[in-house]
Amino acid sequence: MTSRPMHLAAHFPGVNNTTVWAEDAQTSPPPAGPGGRQIAFSSFTHLARTAERGLFDFFFLAEGLRLREHQGRIHDLDVVGRPESLTVLTALAATTERLGLAATVNATFNEPYELARRLATLDHLSAGRAAWNVVTSFDAFTGENFRRGGFLDRADRYTRAAEFVATARALWDAAAPDGAGQPVTHTGQHFGIEGRFGLPRSPQGHPVVIQAGDSPEGREFAAAAADVIFTRHGTLEAGRAFYTDVKDRLPAHGRRPEELKIMPGVTFVLGDTDAEAQENAVEIRRRQISPQNALYALEQIWGIDLSGHDPDGPLPEADPDVDSTFVQGRVKHGDPRQIAEKWRALSAEKGLSSRETVIEATGRQSFVGTPAAVAEQMISFVDRRAADGFILVPHLTPDGLDPFVDRVVPILQERGAFRTEYTGTTLRDHLGLPAPRPRTEAGRG
Amino acid sequence: MPEPHKPTTLHLAAALSAPGAPRPYTAADWTRRVRLAEDGALDFVTLTDAFGERGPDALQALTVTAPATARVGLVPAVTTTHTEPFHLQAAVATLDWVSGGRAGWLPAVSTTEAEARLFGRRPAAPAAALWHEAAEVAEAAGRLWDSWEDDAEIRDLATGRFVDRDKLHYADFTGRTFSVRGPSIVPRPPQGRPVVVADTASPHARDLAARHADVALVHAQGPAAARAAREELLARAEAAGRDPGTLRVLAVLTVDLGGGEYAAVPSHGGGGPRAGGAGSPAVYRGGPVDLAELVTAWHDTGAVDGFHFVPADPDRDLERLINGTVALLQHRGRFRTFYPGATLRDHLGLARPASRYAAARGADRSATTQGEPA
Ligand SMILES: Cc1cc2nc3c(=O)[nH]c(=O)nc-3n(C[C@H](O)[C@H](O)[C@H](O)COP(=O)(O)O)c2cc1C
Fold first, then answer.
1. What is the pLDDT of residue A327?
2. Which of A16, A331, A332, when mutated, tests ligand 1's pocket best, judged by the most ligand atoms within 8 Å of its CB?
3. Residue A278 domain flag
4. Do A38 and A160 reside in the same domain of the chain?
5. What is the pLDDT of residues B111-159, one digit of tens each?
6. What is the pLDDT of residues A78-95, one digit of tens each?
7. Is A218 in the pocket of ligand 1 (CB under 6 A)?
8. Which residue ranges of chain A lie beneath pLDDT 70?
9. FRET pair for B320, CA 20 to 30 Å: which of A185, A335, B45, B340?
10. pLDDT value of position A72
11. Are A179 and A296 members of one domain?
């Protein structure tokens, strides 16, 4: 290989405005059976098989345990509704052969024994392809759907997640070939459990653990316990800073740099020429930010009702209400006042309307260009240590990944940057991860 | 005496494992068993589950077979004691989506201290309290399955709306031990509500069966007892405000077909399940042909709507059951030879329910219309 080997994953189009849902923007007819594109099993099979055709490392599902709300009402502008992750991945185990299957599952609203059992079951039924993206939550809004009800202190979400992962691994390590297993006892701050696991050791021993939090606590947790990080840092500079920060944390945990893969979530837009790709990118942004969605984006920052505001007029004159609570069920990024300030400057500089400002300021596509140019940019990210690979987020369900697999993957392969066949059978094999180390200390006594 | 309820056409189902039998861990092994049941055009297969016992998660073991099968219903046990009702209903709804409308749910509870210690969250509780909670979970699940109306997804370009939020509903269930706000994260599944199959082995499970089940499993040593159990359940369903025609009752019969074609237990002449002690499972030991006779005899006397067979040795008895007993019943015109419908509700002759919230909105609308001048 002339370049560092790249790892690729396919994200099922998200429950947010990245996913373009208008029928006239789609490239294939709606599913034949019941259900729209976002829920039909044929969509999941299509995307997973496309990823497997492209020899991807894994297929990835996000999770949201409560429908998003805006001003106390269910948000209605974006795609919404999804299957339960581990169940749909178990079905995909039957329609794919090599592709890793990664589920996002919240550590706050689950219990270690049950989740460890479900993940081990997926690992068995898929012959070693299971992965778990550990996310944390502390909001009471989501908690209203669960027995736990309330929420965790923000500071406790990662102590719970770390103890959760350690407990799950203790259960996986206690598995015996016949399923009887060693008894496990764990007593900690968040969990006190005792008993036998009930499953034989699964093909990977430990399903792959992915982490997707960005705070210092989140990074430290990843450095200590994760095999892969899913990050938002998708630009070269931010990616390099994040990469260095996280990899530098590994030695303190007795781990080598290659034991933790860093994979930013990225989008892509292709065209036959650079100009065409740029045009396509603008069109996609316009689709993603409808007039209604532009107002919604403003309301999220300003925290006030802007229903009468003209999306084609200037930005709101009022300042953001920083104590507003009317946006629920969504992770907040940054200080609203600073963001509003930046948007005002952008709007003034380029003479942009509200909608144009939102289009310009939010969620720009990561890689835009001809297939060769996109391949080049991705290789350079990996070579310059801004990433070990990428989690690709297509904007169309279910065939948004097809052009990438058809046109970019062959170039990555020609350049020696990406595999030309699966050399192993398990997800650990694809990711080049070492076999799980036997744990001597954690969770056993 | 009220008129007894006439049974429906024959319904047959089978468990894919038996208590204590080793359970496989590969997709191929589970798929082979489910395909066998589908070859026999059975209504559905079940798989029990309990934390701490050996074996994979039952819902996943059946889910992995869904893409490789086309018609047979898939009914895993999912326990309600140490699990989250919200996750449970989402998983069962997802099984309905990936199987094209073939999902069911067999509610189960975790009564032991050993199970409680695997979670460390609450101590073991008496069966009565746990089945009360299971019935609450069934109620909450039903509301969440209905929480998206069928046509909630609108993709309306003019208003920029993907969903009509008036067709998404809070479940707002509050029970003794949990509450759930909703709506579900999963759109309304193909069957509207997946099929609830309630095993009434525990007397505490009967209230759940009468109120929430589409299929009730009864344990009886003979047709008279089975008929009495069925009539009691249908009466309770009626008392709970249901149309008793929406509840199917199947007798559970453990079948041991290891003795060869005609070697029924001598004292029996193949005539019926061997009487055990009170509360012990009904066991049939004999050949597949005599089992077909038994099935016909019970169904003819109007005792039950059908049977749920538990193969004593799944690897051996499932095959003999399908290729022997079921084939004979089909040959005699007593059981379907193919699936005329697509969903598990179709097989059971049960209508797809409307969302309770859509129905409520419909009622509101007609009330307003009536009150307004034309
Ligand atoms: C790239 C990325 C993807 C995420 N995906 C999910 C998700 O699918 N579901 C979820 O509940 N949280 C998700 N999160 C939220 C994180 O789990 C976490 O709650 C959040 O980032 C706050 O933690 P932090 O303060 O460590 O960043 C994601 C976070 C990141 C950075």
1. 65
2. A331
3. no
4. yes
5. 999 999 999 999 999 999 999 999 999 999 999 999 999 999 999 999 9
6. 999 999 999 999 999 999
7. yes
8. 1-3, 150-151, 178-179, 325-333, 438-445
9. B340
10. 87
11. no
- Asked whether residue A268 is assigned to any structural domain, the reply reads yes
pLDDT of residue A2: 52
Number of domains in chain A: 2
Give residue A28's region: left, alpha or beta (phi > 0; psi -120 to 50).
Answer: beta
Residues A432 and A343 in one domain: no
Q: Indicate if A350 and A401 belong to the same structural domain.
A: no
Print the domain residue range for A327.
290-361
* A120 and A148 housed in the same domain: yes
Q: Do A324 and A370 belong to one domain? A: no
Asked whether residue B265 carries a pLDDT value surpassing 50, the answer given is no
The domains located in chain B, with CATH, are 11-110+195-345 (3.20.20.30)
- Sign of the C-alpha dihedral, residues A335, A341, A345, A351? positive
CATH of the domain at A176: 3.20.20.30
CA angle A103, A109, A113 (to 5 degrees): 75
CB of B168 within 8 Å of a chain A CB? The answer is yes
Both structure tokens of B94: 């997802």
- Asked whether residue A418 is assigned to any structural domain, the reply reads yes
Tens of pLDDT, residue by residue over A331-373, are 566 788 999 999 999 999 999 999 999 999 987 789 999 999 9
**Does the beta carbon of B108 lie under 8 angstroms from any beta carbon of chain A?**
no
pLDDT for B7: 85
**Residue A283 belongs to a domain:** no
Tell me which of A109, A214, A366 to substitute to probe ligand 1's pocket, judged by most ligand atoms within 8 Å of the beta carbon.
Answer: A214
- The minimal CB distance from A81 to the residues B86, B179, B186 is found for B186
Helix, strand, coil share of chain B (percent; to 5): 40, 15, 45
Neighbouring CB atoms inside 10 A of B190's CB total 25
* For chain B, percent of residues with pLDDT exceeding 70: 90
Of A306, A330, A361, the residue at which a domain comes to its end is A361
Nearest alpha-carbon partner for B49 in B3, B98, B9, B106: B106
User: Residue B360's pLDDT band (boundaries 50, 70, 90)?
Assistant: confident
Same domain? A300 vs A413 = no
**What pLDDT, on the 0 to 100 scale, is given for residue B320?**
96
What is the predicted ipTM? Answer: 0.94
**A329, A344, A361: which is the final residue of a domain?**
A361
Q: Which residues of B touch A48 (CB under 8 A)?
A: none
